[in-house]
Amino acid sequence: MDRYVKFVKERTEVEQAYAKQLRSLVKKYLPKRPAKDDPESKFSQQQSFVQLLQEVNDFAGQRELVAENLSVQVCLELAKYSQEMKQERKMHFQEGRRAQQQLESGFKQLENSKRKFERDCREAEKAAQTAERLDQDINATKADVEKAKQQAHLRSHMAEESKNEYAAQLQRFNRDQAHFYFSQMPQIFDKLQDMDERRATHLGAGYGLLSEAELQVVPIIAKCLEGMKVAAEAVDAKKDSQVLIELHKSGFARPGDVEFEDFSQPMNRVPSDSSLGTPSDGRPELRGSSRSRAKRWPFGKKNKPRPPPLSPLGGPLPSALPNGPPSPRSGLDPLAILSEISKSVKPRLASFRSLRGSRGTVVTEDFSHLPPEQQRKRLQQQLEERNRELQKEIDQREALKKMKDVYEKTPQMGDPASLEPRITETLNNIERLKLEGRGRPAWLTDGGSRVLSNRGDTLGRHTRPPDPPASAPPDSSSSNNGSQDNKESSEEPPAEEGQDAPIYTEFDEDFEEEPASPIGHCVAIYHFEGSSEGTISMAEGEDLSLMEEDKGDGWTRVRRKQGGEGYVPTSYLRVTLN
Fold first, then answer.
1. Which of 15, 396, 431, 463 has the fewest CB atoms nearer than 10 Å to its CB?
2. What does the DSSP assignment read for 257-294?
3. Which residues form a coiled coil (predicted)?
4. pTM, rounded to two decimals
5. Interhelix angle for 77-136 vs 2-29, to 10°?
């Protein structure tokens, strides 16, 4: 029984170690981030894996339950019963030992009476022989003969008494011995036998508890295995594909077909999608745009910033206007410009990793560094977080007000003035969150418009508006700003088409739309001569209608009272929103 208890104890240690290792394994592979912050949690394969880990964790719990049941029902109970059996066996052994000692004591008394009887018989025989010899001796006196006869008679009487005592002791010993072997010892052995049979019965029951502990958890373990099977069947490849698409779709439109370019007529070539720096709608993109839209090739090399376009003389392309934003037109030969660009910059294909984000990407507050769809999602997520924080602060303020009312009604519960700092802090947090949240809907609308229209108006405008002058419009130094921003342009270098070709037609789409109502008004601080396409001229002090706010590129769309719409530098305006 002790050996079995030791075996079960080691078995429980094995079960506990097994369960502990399973739990450690589950903890190692469980997602560290909460489900709402982990994009992978949206995939069915990840959900099935988490469910499988939970089932393994439940399985580990059942192994711990088996170990606990074995420890309580088997180890403790059998160990306790084993101690009781040891005490009972010790008592039976002591009883048998006492009976045996009594028998041994009777046997010693029998041996003593036997030896005494033997000694008395020898002495009586010796005394009889002495008396007979003196009786036959003629020289012996009568007194000596009588004395010898009396001595022989005394020894004979003593031997007779020893004989009777020996016989009685022998009869007593035989009776005690028979009682010991036929009564006492069988009873003791019967008790030991009964004890051992009860021990064997309990040991067999202990063997049964080993299997019983396993059978108790079999239904739950079967449910765990069934849960693993259900988790395996829940993996939906099609659904995961759609989730992956929803998570990583960029919102960019697919480019159009590449058209043939006829270089036999270099000055009057037809613009096409294959033209370097030409958008997919067939209109060439503005050369030098600080945010030129480059094609994103899924399996190419990583994006690298390229140097600004060079003129045939080796310098940056000059600005067309001395006092305005750099003009997209140029009087130079477009083939020569294209040749110089091809020599200085080798077009690179965008990396597939760029769709997932690059280490060198500059993260902006409005997530404009992301594709339109990703920007919309991030802005929506940020807006929801702001709303949750705002609602939390509002609830806290209401709770503090209620607590203050309670304190005012029952002053013994607390001082109402002690809550004022916390109420003030809560109000400040609410105002701060409201102030931070005002710009979010505009960003979200901008991100959504990028997804719907996929035009990227803010990406296809002029490079950078001129800085506001101290007393007069800026000079040709604005071209330097444009050339510096050209260094930040992405991917494909632009190409000039020809003197008669519409170089900048990005604004045509804007003007073809239905007339929109003004969102505010503005006053021109400086004179601006809008000679490039898409811009509009304005005089200093002129009142204008604000049609579209600055999207971050430094240009604002306005409408003149005399008619006509176009873009002017934001820094040249004093803007008032409706």
1. 431
2. PPPP--TTSGGGPPP-TTSTT--TTSPPPPTT-TT---
3. 100-151, 373-410
4. 0.48
5. 160
